[in-house]
Amino acid sequence: MMKKYIILTLLSFIAFSCEDFLDEEPIGFRTPTSFYQTEDEIDRALAGVYKRHRDLYGAGAGTMLRFGESRSDNTNIEITGDGGGIAEDELNEFTMISTNGNIGTFWTISYNAIARVNFLLANIDNVDYVVEERRDARLGEALFLRSALYFNLVRIYGDVPCIVNPGLTPDQILSDEFLERDPESEIYSSILEEAQEAIDFLPVTTDAPGRATRGAALMLKAKIHMTLQQYTEARSLLEEITTLGYSLLPNYSDVFFTKNHAEGIFELQFSPALDQGANYFSNFVPFSSGQDILGSNSNPNSRGNQYQPTQSIIDLYSDDDDRKAHNISNYIDANGIEYQWVSKFAFPFDQVQFNQQNINWQMYRYADALLMLAECYEQVGGGDPVAILEQIRERAGLDDPSLGADELADLEQTIADERRRELAFEAHRYFDLLRTGKLVEVMSSHGQDQIAQGQTVTANAYQDIRTVIGIPFAEVVEFGMEQTPGWE
Q: Which stretch is the leader sequence (predicted)?
């Protein structure tokens, strides 16, 4: 990986308390030369990386959910007449330009988290660990998180600066090296290497829920290989995951309404008790519902339902599918208008902390691993994809989980459809379409449907389905970085 430099913005010189894994209590300003002196300080710094990573999925920024679902055929945005969310409309309808706030937010949070990892890795060897395995675990966590962050960056922006060292001087931070975007091929090569290092360092289990484990790193590396359509390499990693003790929960709803369970391979931790609760649910309900759905301790997003389920995802479920009942609900407002909304995350809000839920985000879960393994078996052999699909469908409560003749005749599409049903609204669909080369075809057709139904608000909606997003306009103007062709 090319060595580059970046300044650690915001809290780079602040130490955090780590009595609880999620807890971050500022205790004073510290310089990079005076911090990272003890195991506790390494833990505090790592907690800050987890926090920034979580910010990509939470509703505060929540841009991972926007990229993964808004730009897919699973959802559209409720039209309320409120023009304040035009940036989300542009993202949803493929009319974004490089000044769109979602582009800048994702970039900034990601590189802030990467910078924190870089400072940690540059200093961890200065710390004397009593138990060497503990040092290895922290190294593995840091490498896993940096690799995961770069994986998302390269999938969204294509060529990006590959920064692995901290910048301690203005000359380093503003050097020509920092301003260059490295080719996708180099980014993928580097993160595969780092993901393997994380696999080697990380333990199979941890006594602190939320910390990355060997299973999480295996899952990350498998996803990278799947993106590169390297199915044989992904298959062996996914098969190892099946030996590590994970299992499908008996009830689909429990996957989202309980925390740190047997299906969770890597869960982003949220806790109202620490004033760090989840709150993405408020983005999923109709605006006119007020507090009818959310209860008295939350309010709908001012733009209303930003992830309204499309008719195509609704029609994909059979009526006897438990996932349909859990994922999608109906609401009729005071004017008799009926709305369908995503109820997948409809867990009650905390009664003390306003607009916070005590649920985690399932970044990696076992059902996802099984479905990717089925895809590998279908592509390169080595196992039975049908048995895996029937296992997933049996948990979904289907009266007959076996595959029909038409489904068996086009197993590749059947697996894609099952992934869509199982993982709907979890920020996977866009990236599945992207890695399988179907994004332009599917989203062009989806766009035609949305236009015909009067469900678009921006000019030229869905007319240019671009598979790579431009880098933030500010990076071009302020630092002279080269913009992605077509995004100038």
A: none
